[in-house]
Design goal:
7-stranded mixed beta sheet, alpha+beta, 182 residues, disordered N terminus, globular
Length: 182
């Protein structure tokens, strides 16, 4: 939808422009977990863990451990930094940067990934968060931002293309990888 098009009564109101990235403190971590549990599928947020489908003790433990490890930042032991995405003062999801192994002389590449609660999707929040993470990646010295998604995630593919990403792979036999030159 372009800015000049009227919104239909069923379209959610856009939220872009009210987005900021917050460091994940213990307090924010618990609130972020609440958002994930209430407004996102476990498969959208964590790797498959445990015997039970959906949110389970293993996935909740992984979520906390992951965000605690990523709090140390790109130069910490996890070589990763995660932020909570805040939209109008409400937590909406999470976005990250991670160092990737690159060959000597290759462009500095950082990987990103994000998840949003269902109620924030399709409202410009992901696009604004991706814009903010591009700035953070540049500040960290990256010249390329990379992300992976699945063949079935049309929304992520559209978001990445709108940011100027070139997509490669088929998402089935090879990963669907997006590369954005910064």
């Amino acid at each position: 939808m372009s800015p000049s098009e009227p919104m239909s009564p069923s379209s959610p109101a856009p939220l872009a422009g009210r987005v900021e990235l917050l460091d994940v403190t213990e307090e924010i971590l618990e609130k972020l977990l609440d958002v994930a549990l209430a407004d996102a599928a476990a498969d959208d947020v964590t790797p498959p863990l445990g015997a039970a489908a959906g949110w389970n003790a293993e996935r909740i433990s992984w979520f906390r451990d992951y965000h605690r490890a990523a709090a140390a930042g790109l130069d910490g032991p996890a070589a990763e930094k995660a932020w909570a995405i805040s939209c109008g003062g409400r937590l909406a999801g999470s976005i990250r940067l991670k160092r990737t192994g690159t060959a000597a002389g290759a462009a500095s590449t950082l990987e990103t990934g994000l998840w949003l609660g269902r109620s924030f999707r399709g409202r410009g929040v992901g696009r604004e968060a991706l814009n903010l993470i591009r700035v953070a990646a540049l500040g960290a010295g990256a010249s390329v931002l990379q992300a992976e998604t699945t063949a079935g995630n049309a929304a992520a593919q559209s978001l990445l293309r709108s940011a100027g990403a070139e997509l490669a792979g088929d998402g089935v036999t090879t990963p669907l990888t997006a590369r954005i030159t910064l």
